[in-house]
């Protein structure tokens, strides 16, 4: 996809994935990359921002002698995701109307 994604939509995508399950950073990047051209260096500031906004919390799990930091959705994150989904539905409907040309 060549269209840029806004920070708000990227937040929504991250929150939507974390609503399904907890992820550690690299696995979350891999999952996002199945749909969006995103790098780890782009994702980690998003995760820090969402954590600062109390949308996410973290916990560590040992793995092969190291710790993996997992991200989990909070209640605030669930509410923010609902807001973004509503905003997206309205935005998508408006764009569909414009781009599809069905203005009757």
Automatic annotation (TrEMBL):
Its domain of life?
Bacteria
The cross-references to Gene3D superfamilies, in alphabetical order and at most eight, read: Winged helix-like DNA-binding domain superfamily/Winged helix DNA-binding domain (1.10.10.10)
Q: Which residues form the Transcription regulator PadR N-terminal domain?
A: 14-83
Q: Which Pfam families match?
A: PadR (PF03551)
What the entry lists under InterPro entries is as follows: Metal_resp_DNA-bind_regulator (IPR052509), Tscrpt_reg_PadR_N (IPR005149), WH-like_DNA-bd_sf (IPR036388), WH_DNA-bd_sf (IPR036390)
* PANTHER family cross-referenced by the UniProt entry: PADR-FAMILY TRANSCRIPTIONAL REGULATOR, TRANSCRIPTIONAL REGULATOR RV3488
Task: Please give the name of this protein.
Answer: PadR-like family transcriptional regulator
Give the classification, highest ranks. Bacteria, Bacillati, Bacillota, Bacilli, Lactobacillales
